[in-house]
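Hey, weird one. I pasted the Diguanylate cyclase/phosphodiesterase with GAF sensor sequence into the form twice and got a warning about non-standard characters only the second time. First submission, copied straight from the form history:
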Amino acid sequence: MVDGGRVSSKGIFTSEEKEKLKGMYESRLSRLGPSHALDCLTQLASSVIGVPTSLVTLLGPDVQWIKSRYNFGLDVTPLESSFCRRTVQRKDLTIIEDALDDDEFKCNDLVNSAPYVRFYAGAPLFDSEGAAIGGVCVIDYEPRKLSDKEAEMLRAFSVIASNLLESSNNVGFVDSVTFLPNQQRLMRDLDALHARQDEDHVLPKTVIVLEVVSTSGYHELAKSYGVEAVEEVSKNIADLLRVCLSERHLLYAVSLSRFSVLVPQSERGAVIDIVAALNFRIGAGGNTALPVNLQVCAGYYDFDPLAIAPRDTFRRALSALYEALAYREPVMAYQVNFDNAQQRKVKLINSLPEALEDRQLYLMVQPKINMRSGEVVGLEALLRWRHPEFGELSPMEFVPLVAQTYMVNDLTHWVVREALGIISRFHEKGCYLTISVNVTTTNLFDDSFFNCVESMLGEFGVDPKYLEIECLETEELLEDYRIASVLQALRDIGVRIALDDFGSGYSNLNYLRRIPVDVVKIDRSIIKDMEVDAGSRAIVFRLVQILKHFDYGIVAEGIENQATADQLLQFGCVVGQGYYFYRPMIWEKALESFAQCLPSS
């Protein structure tokens, strides 16, 4: 909840969870993953002091985490079994020459059963605030003494380990919002696993990537409630994950809305169950700082740490997450075909410049029909790509990809130029029809777009009234004054402006009145069901009446049968487009196919 400008998470956690969180925050260094530098230090300690085992440990409220180990088989022990607990309590070097002679440890499980510890010496680790948080210790399995020189070396090792841990925590490896290890730390931990050769550390692992999804998106939440409130939501999710996951599950913050978990592969199912349970806790917004609907989606990748490069490991888990988001699935495992699809997209984008040069791209046209007279009254230019590797491509496969790059302007300029060339050829045959081309909002934000269109009209000697610019109905289009000014400039020189897919998106008639539009195209999504759905018929009828009232030209898209055409005519919509009349065709065939259907004028 938001109170007085501050975000509160009161009531999110049970009392037990609050206690668990307190312990985790007190020893948050323990949540960081394996460290090659610490491994080198423990190996060096054993060699210098002459003992078989060395450890770097961190203490939590109930357990001892073993951050680094040399010749030791455990990652975590109960706190009551920890020798380093005495070191932390004393905040000084602790030596136990024979555990069987020590009243506290002679009944310890680590002494009376494997690994049968007899000798222990440990120097405390301190955090930046001077609190003892663990120890660097050396262990032997028979009684022995520690010389003054060896004690001095052990203290030096503890200082080095303290600095290494504090550096890992503070320099580039911790998320500033959640205080979790960040993506850089995850990659470093994966690198460390990949580099290790001992069998204990190369058991199969799983990387799980989680995305917290809101209905409107984190960006819109930040616009509405402020960044602080959204950051508090991220903290809430991070804390819920902290208290639900075990010490063996390494949790990372990848971004405000994204987390990752590195787990033994055998425990992947348990973590997926935790994610499913988490959705129940946050689904109605009751357990986070904002009353919004949230959902967690997950993608995961099972891998062998020695066999797979760390960057590939994370990328494949991300690929699985993207597929889960695309298909609205709660969880998806990585599949090889996910990579194939992404590699295909990369190839398409990278081969576009060559396609523009080598004439792999071409335009087809689809006629617009006066449904009362049967005459062809206009054409829409439709882009196609004859790719040398992938064959014939629909624009739906590559245009959305190009729209995310700077190349969208080059592509649109090419389309406009080709369309003007077709208009010129039609004029040579005595066919004077308007041809429409689709542009993106990115094109309309381009300062050079208007000048390029005007220049090409002059180059081809085409009257601007024969070119129609179609732009997709989006909130950005309808609200941004810069786009409206570009459209108005085009309209002022005689270019017609059409709004495409009206009825499928923002559909705000008030905003529509603010932009210069000549023609509104009603989207096929509501046209296609008119024959069988009374609701669709009612929507189309009202749209047509309103658009006619404001003197817009109207085109109905996606007409597939005569019944729909007849119904549209009854409503007062005369111009239609769809497979029922003509499929897209090359311009030469278009001239042959409907020469007899051209207006007599």
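That's the output from the first submission. The warning seems to come from a hidden character in my clipboard, not from the data itself. The chain has 22 helices and 22 strands.
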